[in-house]
Amino acid sequence: MTMKKKMELDIINQNAAGIDVGSRSHYVAVGQSLEDVKEFGVYAEDLIELCNWLLSYGITSVALESTGDYWQNLYTELIKNGLDVTLCNGKFTKHPKGKKTDVKDCRHIQKLHALGLLTRSFLPEETTEKLRTYCRQRTNLIYISSGISRKMQKYLKFLNFRLDVVVKDVCGLTGLAIIEDICNGNLNSESLAEHRHYNCRKSKEEIAKALHGNNREDYLFGLKQEYQCYLFYQKQIIACDKQIDTFIKEELRKHPDKGKLRTTDKPHKRQNKNAPAIKNFNQRAFQYFGGVDLMEIEGLSHATVLSIMSEIGPGGFKEFPTSKQFVSWLRLAPNNKISGGKVLSSKIPKGSNRLKIALRQAANAIGNLKDTHLSDFFKRVAYRKGRQAAVSATARKLGVILWTMITNKVPYSPPKEYLFLDQKRRLKMVSRIKKNIAKFDLKPEDVGFDNTLNISVDF
After folding, report:
1. Is residue 131 within 8 Å of residue 308, measured between CB atoms?
2. 4: left (phi over 0), alpha (psi -120 to 50) or beta
3. Residue 149 to residues 154, 185, 223, 233, 234: CA-CA distances in angstroms?
4. What is the spatial distance between Cα 388 and Cα 378, in angstroms, rounded to a whole number?
5. How far apart are CA 285 and CA 293, in angstroms?
6. What is the pTM of this model?
7. What is the mean pLDDT of the chain?
């Protein structure tokens, strides 16, 4: 007769509770019996009552799902009461089988947390969280503004004003000046073409040809409405930039030693119209990261560095022991599925966050550069596996570089130095001069150098 073996798991978290977060109520379990489950509301006084009930049972650790936005106020209240909170992804708390109810869910979460089977999600510190709120609001406004610009372009096409053909950007300097004049009632094509900016590639005559419209009143009304909305959201974006600038200044004032740090200027970094309007942003970012110059990395723009500051912050990198764990959290590392000693799949897992998107955009920009360490890496991968795989691989490489620089406080030192356009021109000129000196066998006195000044020239 065979005896049944009973396997027991060790309790990792002794005084643990599980919470099933909902939109109208929260179910809390401090044990596995029905008497250990209680329902609470979502109002402020209900959350205070929930925390007091947990403390009365001697609970020290709580686990809850990151369900939508409903967990945030509850999470804040639990932290305020000194409880250790484990916020986990909902895919790790799925009920294995059977009928699904809120009571069963909270008991299941409590059991998993007591056994130590739940993984804690990453949350930034309060300073980074505040900066993230401002930056995400700014990103949302830019997204809305881009939609309005497409609507303006649609009304221009309905009016037969083919501004999109003669200018690169309808919302650029030339385009906005023409749209403003149209909204003010000027429909003369020659007069509208006078707003051409000197950098515009098309001539005034060609712009005037594209601005012969049908002048329908309903389309003009719609264009005027969209233009006013565009101006409003541009003012909101400027207000966000000012708030972000003020917030960064206040944080740097708390650390006077960081305010003394200085780095080299980056006049070669291009800024588009959506870049944050923050004065000396290069210096501010250098001070914010405690002397680490992220702008030295080719392909990283002002918007990318601002995303790093707001999404994870300087202290967030220390939450990941290794760079591999960091890029895995970003979902940029291959998810190898191995069975029978064979790799069945090595695709990057689904899902993304704003930092991953920012790094992929930077990687795509790196693919358009020439003669840099990262662009050479990008092109090698693109040659073998295509551009899409190269973007992901370069974004992962950027994640490793960022983690190493910020965690170890080391500068960016690629094997191949990146030279800007004016630096390349200078090197070519020096090389040409050296060749001419060698060709004509010139000496320092032949080109006007005074030997009395003890100037040594190495050619």
Report:
1. no
2. beta
3. 9, 20, 10, 11, 11
4. 10
5. 7
6. 0.82
7. 87
